[in-house]
Amino acid sequence: xxxxxxxxxxxxxxxxxxxxxxxxxxxxxxxxxxxxxxxxxxxxxxxxxxxxxxxxxxxxxxxxxxxxxxxxxxxxxxxxxxxxxxxxxxxxxxxxxxxxxxxxxxxxxxxxxxxxxxxxxxxxxxxxxxxxxxxxxxxxxxxxxxxxxxxxxxxxxxxxxxxxxxxxxxxxxxxxxxxxxxxxxxxxxxxxxxxxxxxxxxxxxxxxxxxxxxxxxxxxxxxxxxxxxxxxxxxxxxxxxxxxxxxxxxxxxxxxxxxxxxxxxxxxxxxxxxxxxxxxxxxxxxxxxxxxxxxxxxxxxxxxxxxxxxxxxxxxxxxxxxxxxxxxxxxxxxxxxxxxxxxxxxxxxxxxxx
Length: 354
Ligand code: MRU
Known about the structure:
The protein is α/β, with parallel strands linked by helices. The protein has eleven helices and 17 strands. Helix 2 packs antiparallel against helix 3 (71-83). It is globular, with a radius of gyration of 20 Å. 5-S-methyl-1-O-phosphono-5-thio-D-ribulose is lined by residues 44-47, 89, 154, 156, 160-161, 166, 193, 232-234, 244-245, 310.
């Protein structure tokens, strides 16, 4: 399930704000159209934001028509604009840094050649994420008990990544191995990524999924209906604290209370060793209108205030393991994550660290 298409001249994006009601693609021909799509969450999910931003840089290179000596400054301006779209998911900055390095390493005067090098790098970022997702799926599926009932939050699936998923990649691989009995998807207020996106992509794949309100998750655990919680991540700090969609922290607390495993699945591009702990992660605050209304329907008394953080931080001690493409990190995460980040791809893949 590809959430984007690169045509060579433009980036087509499946507009996730319209799903599951309408399946519509938008065509971005300039980097500012890509930036708009990220800000307004037509495209979202940490790894996918990184991938589309990389293609945004390609569009800047393809669309530039001024003097050659000013081209680098123009593309740098595109990188800055794309970096200012959303602050929490570190994949965005990681992928823009890769694109900036290609730009910096470029010496030829030929703008066409620069564009094709940038496109090659964006293609690599996309492909690498796909391979990482499949690997995480296999490693994570091995950890699942037989015929388990999984609870997940937000959408960490094909629609949030290169086309397979992190948390939902583990669920896909687990389902293929006959290990998944049912998936419970939190609605995920206010933008309903669980109800609209996770439920859509899993049911399209024939994986049994039941949507619950966010408030029902703890109740379901208390009833003994959940065996494992699996979520994605937007940024993992060096100590293992995890920023993910608002509501994740509450789920981790509830899972801990009910003695359920709580797994985070993310590629190495989501791990940010430069950020020491969760308190250092910038939490995106989004427009209060997202909470006040759904479409034209007002939900909140007009004179009431609204607080709308998009993410929260789950402390490392509530996380059973962090599943990456290079292995499964266990506490103490300061040690296990640093160990994973030092390894080369392919080296001791699948080894448990920590
Ligand atoms: O605000 P969103 O929809 O971009 O938030 C997405 C999440 O929080 C996902 O869980 C996270 O990006 C992991 S995606 C593989």
